[in-house]
Amino acid sequence: MQIRVLGCSGGIGGDARTTSFLVDQDILIDAGTGVGDLTTTELEGIDHVFLTHAHLDHTGSLPLLVDSVGPSRDRPVTVHAQPDTLDVLRKHIFNWQIWPDFSEIPDTKNPFLTFSAMSPGAGVTLGDRYIQSIPVNHTVPAVAYLVSGENGSFAFSGDTTVTETLWDVLNQCADLRYLVVETTFLDIERELSELSRHLCPSLLAGELKKLTVNPEIFITHLMPGCEQQIMQEIYQHIGSTRPLPLKRGHVFKL
Asked: pLDDT (tens digit, 9 = 90+) per residue, 213-228?
């Protein structure tokens, strides 16, 4: 199994792309602006999209993806997310006003897009890959994902602040090799971090103390222009762990 980072920034500008991961050639985890760097052929190969939550920096490329490759595919793209997230997509994106409802195009029996509800904590098996959702704590209903294959597991926190279930699940994952966890703001912005239910370095340090397994740790969702400062603050809190900033184009192999 291979997981390629298409985007991992908390915003846009320059080389920054928002969150999306390509699992092998056929699965996306989130659909931020990084999806736009894929070739048409690569886009045509995506069969499944797993969304952590409904916010635009994690879903913004989904409507364009379906529009771009729907007519050239012989099966729909399936979007997996918790029911609340799917409701937001139906009401506010695929509503014939912001974007066409591709679950009805060209018709309801042969759509370009299908929705598959996935309750927090549920999992989906696709070939030799198992993708489990884990509820986390954000301003809207949100989940993390644990992606497991024959050679280990990869975890992505999605957007979250202080939470408990995520760490409980990960601590039971003996083969967890990689953890990608968000840290969005500087410590001076802790009040904003708590209000928006993101992590800052001091909050991250407290969360990582809950982790009893020992994966390689990567930091995602850093705000553009503040990346180095945020990482410096992280090292001040947890210098012994030395997590790395996640970079667009990084490939995890499992």
From this structure: 999 999 999 999 999 9
